[in-house]
Design brief:
mainly alpha, 10 helices, about 75% helix, about 0% strand
Amino acid sequence: MARTGSSSGIGLFLLLTFALSCVFYALVIATGHLGGAMGMYVTGLMWCPGIAALLTCRLRGEGPGRLGWRWGAWRWPWLAYLVPLGYAAVAYAIVWGAGLGGFGNPQFLGKIGHALGFGGAPAWLNTAVYFVLLGSVGMVRSLSTALGEEIGWRGFLAPALVARLGFTGGALVTGAIWAAWHLPILLFADYNAGTPWWFAMPCFVVLVLSSSVLLTWLRLRSGSLWPCAVMHASHNLFIQAFFTPITEPRGNITPYAIDEFGFVVPLVMVAVAVVFWLKRDAVRDDAATA
C-alpha cells in the first residue's frame, strides 16, 4: 500500500472546511430543508471538505497525490459497494421481522411505478427495475456527491490523524469531526427521520463513528480514496433511496427504528465496524511493507 502522507496541515484543512461549509449551512438552514435550491445547497456542502483538502495541498505546496487518487485493485471498490447493501439488508430485515416497520410502502411503490412509466406493471416488477437502476445509474449520481466529502475526510484527514493517533484513534477522531460537521443541518434543518433531536443525534453519531472505522480501514488497506467514495455513495443510495422509503410505518415506533436516525441501522453498523476493527492488523502489515 502506498504511504498516505504526513500528518501536517490538519488545522488548515479543518479551518477551510468549516469556513466554506458555513456558506451552505446558512443557505440550507434559511430554506429549512435539504431540498433547498433543488438539492444544490447540499451538493455544495458535500464538496466543501474536498475543496478544502485540495486548497490545503495547494497552499502548503504539496501535490494532490497524498489524497489517494490511484484506483488500486478492483476488489476494494466491490467490497465497498456491497458492504453497505449487506448491513442495510440485515438492519431492515430486523425492522420488518420485528414488526417495527413493514416491507412495501404503498405510497413509495406507487411513486416509483409512476416515475418509471410502468404504472400498470406489478409492484414487484417496478421494485426490481427501480432497484437495478438505483444500484447502477443511481450510483453515478450518488458517487458524484460522496466523492466531495471523501476527498476531504478519508483522502486527507483520516490518514493524517492515523499517523498521529494510530488506527483506532485516527478513525474515531475523524468520525467525531465528520459527525460534528453534520450537526448544523441535523439540528436546524430537516436532516432527520422525524424523531426528536435528542434521539436522532446519538443514533447518527454512533452510525458515523462506525462508518468511519470501515472507511478508514478501506482507505489504508487499499491506498485509495475511491473505495471510500464508493462505500459512502452506496450507503447513501441504498438506505436513503430504497430501504427507508420502502418501509411502511407501523405506528409511532417506525421513525425511531429506521434510517440513519433510528437505532437499528447504527447497532448493526457497530457490529460490522467491530469486525473491521479486529482486522486492523492487516492495515499495519500493509503499511510496514509499503
